[in-house]
Design brief:
Helices cover 14% and strands 25% of the residues. It is built from 10 helices and 36 strands. An 11-stranded parallel sheet has the order 2-4-7-12-17-20-25-28-31-33-36, with helices on one face. β23 (404-407) and β24 (412-415) form a beta hairpin. α3 crosses α6 (191-206). The protein is globular and about 75 Å long. It starts with 18 loop residues before the first helix and ends in a 6-residue tail after the last helix. The relative contact order is 0.11.
């Protein structure tokens, strides 16, 4: 994901998993050269009763240039049909050959239907045995690390980067502590550099590219993919630009016409999460110059950022979504179940021994990223009748705040208001914390979904603390176009006095005037760089919210350096201008979602 020594603009690009490799530090992370082509498997009989690839609606059914697009996936004349029961068979079906480094090879784009039978663990070796931490560490070799035990490495890592000690440095120009370096002054790898190699080896095993004209469909009610990251299209940004000022994109694999149906996808577990001292870090500007609080660290004088009372932040970050739609169009994800599986977040609290203020719940060690994220160059995606459960960050739509122009060596491509068109309807959200979805740029339609959850108990409440405490549903980011209608939410408030606005779209607006200016500077019209919101028909705990209540609250947030929130209506865009759909009342949608959303329900 990372391809330069500066912090990359988005987490969708293989940042920490490949940073050391791309920087040329680790020969052990090079691509594989032993992949062998195998004869194409002979067509087999399509499973009786298996779901088809046809029926997509919403944005997936719209061609990027406008007009109707029929999503077929691999359901085309001449397509090869695979029935897969283990990782090796699944990889061969995706790539058309055996591969050992799944991110060094392009996927097969020829039409294919891949039917998943039973449970397939994607984090296993050639003998179908679980891959351990130590197995990935050994792949990096003794020239990278002398550790043979991950437990020993992990303990040293957490001591070396204890934020209470790491903050005893001068802040960078961004007002945050220095990033963890990959190399020391003597050129040897730091613990972070070693961790990056371990993570890169895992990424090149569980990260599986899905090419064009592909359907992946579960057979029956128990088809499961566990421990993997399906990457629909792919791309890696560099820090280099061409004469036109476009950022160069390498390793680009654009894909289109993909279907995922009737699968349980579970526990895309990052075995080597990274600590980022910059993430969400802040110090109140008023603190500087008060007492010993200062931007510059002076050990002799005892002054520095570590003395600032308002210091906070830093986060653990993980690499893998269950499904990452990176560089794909006309994608239909329907009737699946997504969750964290047998390793819920509660098993990984903040690091024992890290002192306040670096031990808050938001700083738990994170091993799971998104369930389904749509980022970078992806667009025209529909998520329908899925069951998303027991997870924190559900959907990120748009990975960075800065619109830009890119070139993959063949053509100019863009990231900004002309991408990230997504429809989410009739999905069930059960014990999901946030990002349902979080939106940047794209025209996103959220209708007839049903959410349940419980808030963290307030002081004095006797309610049990939920494993995944509800935070917020829909989050408005840079230049978002978010159209929300007729959704139902049933939330156990547990003594909370949060307003409906705080429970639904949140307390903050993550769209700023400065990012809007960067958007217009990238060549997009001012109207497209604006932030828009519409909401109607929300049923919260069986009470219908007043018309305009959430919109008015969102508009109040658009003050100062925060971008103005515009009303999303026909003067700019409404979903009916792009495709036909039928919306139910929120109460009727709740009934239908409970009956039909999730794997094995249709």
């Amino acid at each position: 994901m990372k391809t330069s020594s500066v912090r990359p603009p988005l987490r969708v690009l293989r940042p920490t998993v490949a940073a050391a490799c791309v920087l040329g530090l680790l020969a052990a992370c090079g691509g594989d050269d032993d992949d062998t082509a195998v004869p194409a498997p002979a067509p087999v009989t399509r499973p009786a009763g298996a779901l088809s690839s046809l029926g997509a609606d919403g944005w997936a059914s719209v061609a990027p240039a406008g007009g109707r697009f029929e999503v077929t996936g691999g359901d085309q004349p001449g397509a090869v049909v695979h029935i897969v029961e283990n990782r090796a068979q699944f990889v061969r079906a995706l790539y058309g050959r055996d591969v050992t480094d799944t991110l060094a090879q392009g996927p097969d784009d020829t039409p294919k239907l891949i039917y998943v039978k039973g449970r397939i663990d994607l984090n296993v070796d050639a003998d179908n045995q679980p891959m351990t931490h130590e197995a990935y560490m050994r792949q990096c070799g003794p020239s990278v690390t002398t550790y043979t035990s991950y437990a020993a490495f992990d303990a040293d890592y957490k001591v070396a980067y204890d934020p209470s000690e790491w903050i005893k440095q001068s802040l960078d120009d961004d007002g945050r502590p220095p990033a963890l370096p990959l190399q020391g002054a003597d050129g040897t790898l730091t613990l972070e550099g070693q961790r990056a190699c371990f993570g890169a080896r895992q990424a090149r095993h569980i990260g599986l590219r899905v090419g064009s004209n592909t359907s992946i469909i579960g057979i029956g009610t128990d088809a499961t993919l566990v421990g993997g990251n399906l990457r629909l299209g792919d791309a890696t940004l560099t820090s280099d630009t061409n004469a036109a000022g476009e950022t160069l994109v390498v390793d680009a694999h654009a894909a289109k016409n993909i279907v995922l149906r009737n699968l349980t996808l579970s526990d895309s577990y990052d075995m080597f999460p990274s600590w980022d001292p910059k993430d969400s870090f802040s110090i109140a500007s008023a603190d500087f110059g008060q007492g010993l609080c200062a931007r510059v660290y002076d050990a002799a004088a005892g002054t520095g950022p570590h003395q600032c009372p308002s210091r906070k932040g830093g986060r653990w970050n993980s690499e893998y979504d269950l499904v990452s739609v990176f560089n794909a169009t006309n994608v239909w994800i329907d009737g699946n179940t997504f969750d964290d599986g047998d390793r819920p977040d509660k098993l990984d609290p903040p690091v024992p021994g890290w002192a306040a203020p670096f031990n808050v719940p938001e700083q738990k060690v994170q091993h799971h990223d998104g369930l389904v994220d749509v980022t970078l160059f992806a667009t025209h995606v529909t998520l329908s009748y899925n069951h998303f459960r027991n997870h924190d960050k559900t959907h990120l739509i748009g990975g960075i705040d800065v619109a830009g122009r890119y070139n993959d060596g063949r053509q100019s491509i863009s990231y900004g208001p002309d991408k990230l068109a997504v429809t989410l309807h009739h999905n069930r959200y059960e014990n999901t914390v946030q990002r349902q979805p979080r939106v940047r740029f794209g025209k996103v339609h959220v209708y007839n979904n049903y959410s349940t959850g419980a808030l963290k108990p307030s002081s004095g409440s006797t309610a049990p603390a939920p494993d995944y405490a509800w935070s917020v549903a829909w989050q408005i980011g840079t230049a978002a176009k978010l159209y929300v209608e007729n959704n139902a939410l049933d939330l156990a408030l547990n003594g909370s006095t949060k307003t409906p606005a705080q429970l639904t779209f949140g307390d903050s607006l993550s769209s700023t005037v400065s990012n809007q200016t960067k958007c217009t500077a990238a060549g997009y019209p001012a109207a497209d760089c604006g932030t828009y919101f519409y909401e109607a028909g929300t049923l919260l705990n069986d009470a219908l919210l007043a018309e305009g209540e959430l919109l008015a609250a969102a508009k109040r947030k658009g003050t100062g350096s925060t971008a103005v929130v515009n009303t999303l209506d026909a003067s700019y865009w409404t979903p009916s201008a792009s495709y036909a759909y039928t919306v139910q009342t929120a109460a009727d949608a709740r009934t239908e979602v409970l009956a039909k959303a999730g794997a094995g329900k249709r």
